[in-house]
Structure prediction request, 114 residues.
Amino acid sequence: QVRLVESGGGLVQPGGSLRLSCVGYGFTFSTYTMSWYRQAPGKERELVAGITGSGGVRNYQDSVKGRFTISRDNAKNTVWLQMSSLKPEDTAVYYCYAPGRSAWGQGTQVTVSS
Prediction:
């Protein structure tokens, strides 16, 4: 059974940092592109970042370029989203997604507030 389990969300002040983790189960993790999405209240879910199976290609939404970094360790079946210089507009539920398996994680809340 394919599962994605996220962790690492929380409350952080503007300018702070958080690292989100996502562990994949039940599929050959290293062969799949992995993505992070987010959904703020009243807004549609949007792509934040993606990384290919080998980690060789990464892409980011313009609003997070230079602040967020996506990475992965295939030996640990894990993908991370390192978020720095956080802004209140980054507040959202963040989801891990495996497009090739149409699998979503349960989501983790990130709140940026003073």
